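Appendix B, record 7
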Amino acid sequence: MSHPIPERGLRADALRNRQRLIQAAHEMFAERGLDVSLDDIASHAGVGIATMYRRFRDKYELIDAVFEQHFTDMADAAEAAAAATDPWPALVAYFEFACERMAGSRGMTAALERSGYHCNQVGMQSVRIEAAVEKLAQRAKGDGSLRADVAPADFFGLIFTVGALADITRTVAPTAWRRHLALILDGLNNDHRPRRPLPLPLPATHDTDIRTAEQTPRINR
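Structure tokens (predicted):
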């Protein structure tokens, strides 16, 4: 199959088909996650599977097209939070924003879990997010607002936890995740009360093994 033509070089009808496919994929990923076939997406867009493959080489390229802007927005917001004057309110606002994005689409959390493996643009933005969140956490620790034993990786566990809860409660209580996010953030805040010590974080090698296992692609072609 031929390599997809860059968007700026497409004819008007081809560009419309590409946008229809992106919109159809966005809707289906949001509702059903990433385990949706390209045939189903093409059918939802009202085009043939051959049109799909003329516009996108594979599902990973389509995922990039659907989520690139979402993750760019999240990276921009993370960097703005890391540069804010008051780090704790910035940290709270950022994770409310990030979790709202995740809660709105089953595909968002899955795309973040698998980033860097096949989805180039999503992977690039995830690197920006990780660096900014680490800086934000250090600044919040520095001014005493974040408990000192929190690791940056804890925040990604927070996102995945809230995303999983949002997925479970999506049809019965679509905003339930907000309550649990508030409870988690309160637990991270350093309000100078006695705290139960956190278990030791995983060694770096074990953490990498777990992230790799989580990110192993399970996408149907």
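Remarks on this record: The two ends are 15 Å apart (CA to CA). The chain has a mean pLDDT of 84.
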